[in-house]
Amino acid sequence: MKDSNCNTGNSCCPKLKDWGLLLLRVGVGAFIMTHGWAKLSNFSEIAPNFMPFMGLSPQISLGLIVFAEFFCGLAIVLGLLTRLATIPLIIGMSVASFLVHHADPFQVKELPMLYLIVFVVILLTGPGKLSFDNFLYKRFCPRAKRDQ
Q: Which residue would you say has higher pLDDT here, 144 or 135?
């Protein structure tokens, strides 16, 4: 008879860390999406004054950060290609922290630096079991051994 209680010995039961990763992913992903949506919905007004990065035009630079903040933020919320989705966000938050706001006081740099830390944590830890990544992994790689 199968035990229906969720305890630490039950490997099919999401652990507290997975709930924590879900909360972290959904929270930070939703928050960063608001920044991306603001830029996307006001693209033509923001583009002329946006910082050109590595020789790219302001429009292309803005398009890249909109992609990172809105679309990669959505992927993080869903837990879909999570580690891959953190890479553009880590790059974007590094540029914002250390290039765009390099001369600004710490209070201005604080938010992009906080996002940077959280995205690095998600890159290192992965999305957890409560994610589309985990669902797809179990669906298409059912016999592969995976770290718990």
A: 135
Per-residue pLDDT of 31-89, as tens digits, reads 999 999 999 999 999 999 888 888 888 999 999 999 999 999 999 999 999 999 999 99
Structure tokens at 130: 């409560």
Task: Give the burial class of 46: count Cβ atoms within 10 A of its Cβ; 0-12 exposed, 13-18 middle, 19 or more buried.
Answer: middle
Return all residues near 99 (Cβ < 8 A) that are at least 6 apart: 51, 53
Tokens of 144: 């592969």
The pLDDT, as a whole number, for residue 3 is 45
Question: Which residue shows structure tokens 């079991």?
Answer: 129
Residue 139 phi/psi, 5-degree rounding, is -70, -45
How would you write 66-107 as a 3-class SS string? HHHHHHHHHHHHHCCCHHHHHHHHHHHHHHHHHHHCCCCCHH
Tokens representing residue 41 in the block: 């919905």
* CA dist 140 → 67, 83, 114, 118 (Å): 28, 18, 35, 29
**113 DSSP 8-state letter:** H
Does position 9 have pLDDT exceeding 60, yes or no? no
